[in-house]
Design a protein that fits this description.
alpha/beta; three-stranded antiparallel beta sheet; 9 strands
Length: 169
């Protein structure tokens, strides 16, 4: 009888522990596609101390670009360092898993990347931003920070060689 009670108590503890792990300790998986203002803001709010979320950020570029500073950087290339930061250096995303890859398909519970990696999620945030003509926004081939900076320097040299410049807006 005592052995049976002990076995039952042990089984109850295992069941309670199992439910505790399932309902208390398992973090909801959040995948954020894009790491500009909206994506990083979302990550920052989801990742406080003792967060209940496991956050993965997927970004095809290896850098963050402060878009409002682009025109100044084209006029004054010394400003490039102020508008570009490697993703890994952004403090607001500490605790997030950062993956440099391109999303090629999205299903109800998973995304697949160009590399073949698949990420399952409970919540998906699509924060891919907007698109402008170059050089204001990065073009498809400008996924590396150095390539992007070279494009902006080229725009700077074209601007310097122009006889006339018209500014609208």
């Amino acid at each position: 009888y005592q052995r049976r009670v002990h076995g039952t108590v042990k089984r109850i503890i295992e069941i309670v522990f199992h439910f505790f792990v399932i309902f208390q300790m398992v973090k909801a998986k959040v995948v954020i596609i894009g790491s500009s203002f909206a994506g990083l803001s979302c990550a920052r709010h989801l990742l406080p101390a003792k967060s209940q979320f496991e956050v993965t950020i997927i970004e095809k570029k290896n850098y963050f670009e402060y878009t409002p500073g682009i025109l100044r950087a084209i006029v004054d290339p010394s400003h490039l360092s102020a508008i570009h930061l490697p993703l890994s250096s952004l403090g607001c995303i500490q605790g997030a898993r950062i993956v440099q890859d391109e999303v090629v398909s999205v299903s109800l519970k998973a995304i697949q990347c160009k590399s073949g990696l698949i990420f399952h999620y409970d919540y998906l945030v699509v924060a891919v931003g907007s698109d402008y003509a170059g050089p204001i926004k990065p073009q498809l081939n400008e996924i590396d920070q150095k390539v992007r900076q070279q494009q902006l320097l080229s725009a700077h040299f074209l601007l310097n060689e122009a006889e006339k410049v018209t500014i609208i807006g």
